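Table 4 source record.
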Amino acid sequence: MQKINVTYGQLKKFMDKKKLKSQDKLVKKVKRILDKHGIMSIQRVAYLDYAKELHKKWWDFKGKTLNKEVKLVFLKWNERGLDGNVLSKIAKLLYLKV
């Protein structure tokens, strides 16, 4: 097997690009969900922020910790008046349960 020399900076740069690409794909899918549910443009920012926050949790945590974090994020945005049904559908895009 060939050994590959990679610095931490190179690896971080690669992972950051990968994270941004996956977030961009998520945002496009979220916008389709918002269109389908007739969410007004003034509320879209909040739903997109929710999706981005979930995406960050998805990258940073795994297992039980991830499940707890997802529930906390869901409760926070639901208490801010966002539709729980739409929030659940957004979470499902990341294969998360709320």
